[in-house]
Amino acid sequence: DISEYLPLIKSCLLFFDQHYRQRALRSTGSETDPNGHLILYPGSACETYKITNNSTSTIAALQTVLTGMINLPEHYLSGDERLFWSEMLDRIPPVSYRSFDGKTTISPAKSWERINNTESPQLYPVYPWRIFGIGRPGLDTAVNTFRYDSDVLKFRGHLSWKQDNIFAACLGLTDDAKELTIRKLSDSGRRFPAFWGPGMDWVPDHNWGGSGMIGLQEMLLQTHEEQILIFPAWPEAWDVHFRLHAPGNTTVEAELKDGKVVILRVDPPSREKDVINMMNQQ
């Protein structure tokens, strides 16, 4: 039951709608652009791209949260509320794109004035917002962004909160996910092996361990709609036994040995039909 969270979710969404409509009206005389979309300016794409127009990380977040709101069961929203959130979703501008080496990639924003940090918000539509990924439209564009975007390549790393390992796993890039995860979860070199850092912040760096664990789990299990994908970015040579949670009060336990799934238990059993073994499709 998410009832206690709805006031916060609604107020966060309303801020973006009311604030940017008001700003646009003051500066242009219209609440939206000629296409009826919000003008998300000024903004920021994570902490990296500053004074942005239509930040991609913001757009992806709004699209995903609004879609989730619209799809809530009936008892959470009135018909008028659902209509309002649907209309707001229509006001969210589209994600911008740019090209590298003739390849279409996701842009961090429509425009920006400066770069202050080393995040890759152009890949936030992959994670955490899951607009692009395995089984979703535009996977090749997201992979191009990981492979060819010069900023993404320059910022890539494994220290601290860097989540390139997570991006690689969510895109099904097994070799990249393997390499980055090994670097992420290597011995810290200190008395306590998991006292990583200092990366960007301090020792012990919990962001370092947290992002490492998320990436490892995404290599083992991902979901899309009703599908439960096991081993979507897992090296065939790595034996593993895992037990992880999936949406819908579902638990998945599996063991991979010599490249073969030797144990698969799904609770409740009715969801076993939704499991897809990606090891056979790599």
Short key terms for the protein model shown above:
282 residues; alpha+beta; four-stranded antiparallel beta sheet; three-stranded mixed beta sheet; 8 helices; 12 strands; 35% helix
What is the strand and helix layout of this fold?
Elements: H1 6-28, E1 43-45, E2 49-55, H2 56-70, H3 79-91, E3 97-100, E4 103-106, E5 109-111, E6 114-115, H4 139-148, H5 150-155, H6 164-170, H7 174-184, H8 206-220, E7 221-224, E8 227-230, E9 240-246, E10 250-257, E11 260-267, E12 275-277
Parallel strand pairs: 8-12
Antiparallel strand pairs: 1-2, 2-5, 2-6, 3-4, 7-8, 9-10, 10-11
Helix pairs in contact: 2-3, 6-7, 6-8, 7-8
Strand content: 15-25%
**CA-based shape:** globular
Secondary-structure content class: alpha+beta
What fraction, in percent, of the residue positions are helical? 25-40%
Report how far apart the termini are: 37 Å
How would a crystallographer describe the biggest sheet?
4 strands, antiparallel
Chain-averaged pLDDT:
97
Total helical segments = 8
Radius of gyration: 21 Å
Query: Unreliable segments (pLDDT under 50, ≥5 consecutive)?
Result: none
Order of helices and strands: HEEHHEEEEHHHHHEEEEEE
Kindly state the number of beta strands.
12
